[in-house]
User: Which sequence fits this backbone?
């Protein structure tokens, strides 16, 4: 049967319930939590600090060092502790998604260490992690040209859907290809796309629709991020 209604009753362009908070780790220079429904990510920022070993230092700019991982109990089937090929790949793409928003030229020879931990997972972990990380960097007071907002957009049974769950990622119709998943990260003020990964097949028309949908939803996420930061400033 065609995918005409989402499993959890959401509209096709509707995310799961969003929750966000900053200052969740007191001893970090900046920290944040971000949730898409029952997918929950926590980010902590330490620095800028002098970068070691010295041969990695850059006299023109600082360096963002990101470590992303998932706790063993965050998924139904226990994850093996420690970094995996997937977590190393997500660490790298997260750095690339966040770097355009940071003014790291103000911190030559330095490193900003960013740790992202997924404590509960039901798909959308890298996008939740990017949203948490963007908040944590801003909470740390690092100079930024903009926040970075992120969401996953997928194609299920020919329908463009936002913020897929694990059940939706695994959905497959008879004689149809697997679900297509596209994580996006966007700087909302100028619309610059800092992350676009494509897992699956999609037409150019569908990709354009997915991008337009991602920008619309990222603007909504951006408003949540700004509100959380403003509330923290007012305390």
Assistant:
């Amino acid at each position: 049967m065609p995918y005409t209604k989402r499993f959890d009753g959401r509209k096709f362009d509707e995310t799961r319930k969003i929750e966000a908070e900053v200052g969740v780790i007191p001893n970090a220079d900046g920290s944040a939590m971000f949730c898409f429904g029952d997918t929950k990510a926590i980010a902590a920022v330490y620095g800028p600090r002098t970068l070691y070993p010295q041969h990695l230092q850059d006299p023109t700019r600082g360096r963002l060092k990101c470590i992303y991982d998932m706790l063993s109990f965050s998924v139904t089937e226990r994850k093996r502790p420690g970094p995996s090929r997937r977590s190393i790949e997500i660490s790298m793409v997260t750095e690339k998604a966040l770097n355009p928003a940071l003014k790291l030229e103000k911190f030559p020879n330095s490193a900003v260490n960013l740790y992202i931990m997924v404590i509960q997972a039901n798909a959308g972990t890298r996008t939740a992690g990017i949203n948490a990380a963007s908040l944590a960097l801003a909470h740390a007071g690092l100079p930024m040209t903009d926040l970075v907002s992120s969401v996953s957009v997928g194609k299920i049974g020919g329908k463009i859907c936002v913020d897929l769950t694990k059940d939706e990622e695994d959905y497959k119709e008879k004689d149809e290809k697997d679900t297509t998943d596209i994580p996006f990260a966007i700087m909302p003020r100028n619309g610059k796309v800092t992350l676009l990964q494509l897992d699956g097949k999609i037409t150019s028309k569908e990709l354009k629709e997915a991008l337009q949908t991602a920008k619309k939803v990222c603007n909504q996420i951006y408003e949540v991020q700004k509100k959380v930061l403003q509330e923290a400033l007012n305390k």
Summary: The first strand starts at residue 18 and ends at 22. The chain has a mean pLDDT of 91.
